[in-house]
C-alpha cells in the first residue's frame, strides 16, 4: 500500500499521447489546441471607425471650420474612399475603413446635418473614434499559445484569422468497463439482491465533458470472459477505466488477469479513503493505460477526479489547477489515510466556502448529487478547524 | 436610452418556454431536468457488505467464540443466503447481501483462515462494515428536485433508479444572424477593407455549452434581403441572436425591419459600455424573442453573458448565480454608463481575485481570449479601490 502522494506521482509519470488531428472550428470547443496561432494580418487590419458619424481632417478644426459639406460616404465593407477637400467631410459607418486624408471621426450625436452639411456641436479630439490599424495585434503576433483549452473566446480568435480546421490533440480511445454480477442495466428491474449500473454512466458523462465518447463494456465475474474481453479491449483502446473487481474479494479477478495479459502493475491499494483499492497499470507494448477503480460509486467518482483528470491534462501538456476552499465547520481527517470528504460549497464576497455533507460511506451514491466536490485532508492532520483553507477538488462547475 | 438595471429587468420579464422532451441518459448531461426524481426502492436496497471478509452473528462474540467454521459464501449478485449455526460464519464479498441470521462483517485483514475456519484477530463492533438497507434513502424519497442542471453526479442517480429516458426542458431553436457587408466567411481571404466573421462562431460555441445547436445565417446590408430572411427566421426559430446592424448607421436596417415584421421593440440602447446599442424585442404572435447585439465582438460577447445567459436560465425556472471577485488594482467606472470591464482572475487561498486587462475598445477581439470575464462597475461609482469586492460575470469556467 502506498501513500496518496506517491500514487498520484506514479500516475502522473505514466502520461501518454495520441497524436494530433484537425477538427472543424464548430467542433473544436473544449478540445486542446495543439499549434500556436498567430495574427495573419494586423488587428484591426485598417483604421476602423468605431462610431457612425462623419470623418474629417483635423486641420479643418485648426482652421476654425465647424460646418462640413458632405462629400461622400464610407460604409463598412466598402473599399477605402478619399476625402478630397479638408474643409469637407465624409459620412462614415462603424466598421468602415477611415477615408484617406481624414484622421478623426465625430459621431452623429455630436453633429447636426442639414442640406448636405454637417455642423459639429462640440470640438472633437484629434484621432477620436478610430480603432487604429494594428493597435490590438500586429501581423505575426502570437494570439493563442498551445496547448490551451479552446473556449468561445478562442473560437472568435480562430475564426478571425481564418482557421476553420483547427489542429487539436487527439483524445484517447476510452472504454469504461464495469464489473460485478450484482449489476444490471438501467432498463432492467433489479432483483432484490441486484442494483443498477450507475458508475459507467457517471464516467461516460465525465468523459463527455472532455469531449471523449467512451464505449461501455460490462464483464461478468467469470475469469474466462474477463480474460477474453480485457485482452480485446487492451488492443482496441488507449485507456481502460474499470470499476469494481479490484478489492480483496474471492471474485476480484481483475488484477490477476491484467497481469496475465501482460499489463504491468504500477500500484494497487492507496492509503486513501474513499478509493483505497485503486489499481493502476500500463501495458508496456500496447501502451494501454489502466485505471482500475474500486466499484463503490463514491470511490470511482473521487478517483476519476483525483487521478484521471490531472493525468489527462498532463497528457496534453496542461498543468492542473489546484483550488482551495475555506471550511465553515471543522473536519476530522484520518490518522493513516488521506481523506477526501464530500462538501457543499457556497461562493460569497469573492470567497469559496465549503462544508462537509452528511454522508454514509462510499456506497452513498445520492450524496454525490448533493455535493460540489471533495476537500482533501492529509493523513495525520487530525481535526482541521473552521476557517482553515484546504485543498478542494471540484466535481461540478462552481464558477 | 434606459439604464442597465431596467434593461436587464425587461429581458427577464420576457422569458419563454418550449415544452419538455425525453432524451437518453447518455445525452442528458448539461440539460435541465424537468421532473422530480424519487427513489424507486430503498438505497441501498438490502443490507450490503462494504468489505470482503466473513459475516457472523454477534451472539457468537458474546459467547466468546473467535474461530468460525465457514458454512458457505455470499457473493455480490447472488440471492441472500442464510447462516445456519451462530457459531459458524459465511464468507462475504463487498456488495453482497448480508446473510440472514448475521449482523456483523469482519474484513479478511482481521481474520486468519485455515482449514475452512476463520479465526478473528480483533474483537469486532456489532453491525460493522454493513451499508444498511435504506440508510442513504428510503423508497419514495425525493432524490433530484427539478429544475436542475444534470451533471455526472445526477446521471449516476438517474441510472440507479432506472431512468434511461430523462425528461428535460426543450431548448429553444436558435439562429445566430450576422450582418454587415464588411464580413467574409472564415475560409475566405478578406480584402483589405473586410474582416472575417467571428461573433457567429463564438456565439455558436457558447450556445453549444448549453446544448443548443444553433444555425448560422448571414444577412447582407440590403433591406429587401434582410426583410425576407428575417421574416422567415421569425417563423422558424424561437430565438434570434443578431449581431450588428443596430447602431445609428445609415445601413443599420435591423430595428426598422423588425418593426415592419411585427416585432415589438422592448428597448433599444442601454446606458452601458460595451454593448450600448443593444436592441431587444419580442414578436407578440410568433413569440420569437430577438436579442440584437451590437456587432463589435466584445459587445456581443458581453451582452450574451450579461443578458442571454440569465434569460435562458430563467426560461427553465433556474436562478442565475451572482458572483463577486476581489480587485487587485483599482478600476475606474463611468459617470453615466454601467461599465463591464474585462478582467483576468486568479484563485488563491479560497479567494477569487480580478484585475483589469489592458484593452483597446470593444473591437478588441483578442483581449477576450486573455480575459476570464467582466467585472461590473455601476454608473457613477467612480473609482473602485483595490481590495473591493465587485460583481463578476465569468466568461469561461474558473473553478
Report on this structure:
The structure is a homodimer of 399-residue chains. By secondary structure, chain A is α/β, with parallel strands linked by helices. Chain A has four domains: 2-16 and 171-315, 3-Layer(aba) Sandwich (Molybdenum Cofactor Biosythetic Enzyme, Chain A), CATH 3.40.980; 21-43 and 135-169, Molybdopterin biosynthesis moea protein, domain 2, CATH 3.90.105; 48-131, Molybdopterin biosynthesis moeA protein, domain 3; 323-394, Beta-clip (Beta Barrel). The first copy, chain A, contains eight helices and 31 strands. In chain A, the strands form nine sheets. The first copy, chain A, has a six-stranded mixed β-sheet with strand order 9-6-8-7-11-10, with no helix packed on it. In chain A, strands 19-16-20-24-23-21 form a six-stranded mixed β-sheet, sandwiched between helices. In chain A, strands 25-28-27-29-31 form a five-stranded mixed beta barrel. Chain A is elongated. The model of chain A has no long low-confidence stretch (mean pLDDT 96). The interface between A and B is large, with 117 and 117 residues.
Amino acid at each position: 500500500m502506498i501513500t496518496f502522494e506517491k500514487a498520484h506521482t506514479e500516475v502522473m509519470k505514466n502520461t501518454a499521447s495520441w497524436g494530433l488531428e484537425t477538427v472543424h472550428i464548430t467542433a473544436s470547443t473544449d478540445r486542446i489546441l495543439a499549434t500556436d496561432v498567430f495574427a495573419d494580418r494586423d488587428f484591426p487590419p485598417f483604421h476602423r471607425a468605431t462610431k457612425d458619424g462623419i470623418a474629417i481632417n483635423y486641420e479643418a478644426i485648426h482652421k476654425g471650420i465647424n460646418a462640413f459639406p458632405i462629400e461622400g460616404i464610407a460604409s463598412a465593407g466598402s473599399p477605402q474612399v478619399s476625402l478630397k477637400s479638408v474643409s469637407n467631410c465624409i459620412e462614415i459607418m462603424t466598421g468602415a475603413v477611415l477615408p484617406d486624408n481624414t484622421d478623426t471621426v465625430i459621431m452623429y450625436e455630436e453633429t447636426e446635418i442639414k442640406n448636405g452639411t454637417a455642423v459639429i456641436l462640440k470640438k472633437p479630439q484629434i484621432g477620436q473614434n478610430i480603432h487604429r490599424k494594428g493597435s490590438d495585434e500586429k501581423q505575426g503576433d502570437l494570439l493563442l499559445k498551445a496547448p490551451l483549452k479552446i473556449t468561445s473566446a478562442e473560437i472568435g480568435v480562430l475564426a478571425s484569422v481564418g482557421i476553420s480546421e483547427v489542429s487539436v490533440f487527439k483524445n484517447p480511445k476510452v472504454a469504461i468497463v464495469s464489473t460485478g454480477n450484482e449489476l444490471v442495466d438501467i432498463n432492467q428491474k433489479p432483483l432484490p439482491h441486484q442494483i443498477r449500473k450507475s458508475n459507467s454512466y457517471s464516467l461516460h458523462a465525465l468523459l463527455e465533458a472532455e469531449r471523449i465518447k467512451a464505449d461501455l463494456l460490462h464483464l461478468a465475474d467469470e475469469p474466462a470472459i474477463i480474460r477474453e474481453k480485457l485482452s480485446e479491449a487492451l488492443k482496441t483502446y488507449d485507456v481502460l477505466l474499470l470499476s469494481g473487481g479490484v478489492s480483496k474479494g474471492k471474485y476480484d479477478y481483475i488484477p490477476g488477469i491484467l497481469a496475465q495479459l501482460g499489463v504491468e502493475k504500477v500500484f494497487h491499494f492507496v492509503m486513501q479513503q474513499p478509493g483505497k483499492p485503486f489499481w493502476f497499470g500500463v501495458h508496456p507494448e500496447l501502451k494501454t493505460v489502466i485505471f482500475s477503480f474500486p466499484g463503490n460509486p463514491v470511490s470511482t467518482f473521487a478517483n476519476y477526479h483525483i487521478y484521471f483528470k490531472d493525468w489527462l491534462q498532463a497528457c496534453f501538456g496542461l498543468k492542473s489547477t489546484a483550488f482551495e476552499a475555506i471550511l465553515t465547520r471543522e473536519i476530522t481527517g484520518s490518522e493513516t489515510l488521506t481523506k477526501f470528504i464530500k462538501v457543499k460549497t457556497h461562493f460569497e464576497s469573492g470567497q469559496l466556502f465549503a462544508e462537509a455533507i452528511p454522508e454514509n460511506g462510499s456506497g452513498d451514491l445520492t450524496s454525490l448529487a448533493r455535493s460540489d466536490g471533495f476537500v482533501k485532508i492529509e493523513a495525520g492532520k487530525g481535526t482541521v478547524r473552521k476557517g482553515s483553507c484546504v485543498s478542494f477538488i471540484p466535481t461540478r462547475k462552481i464558477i
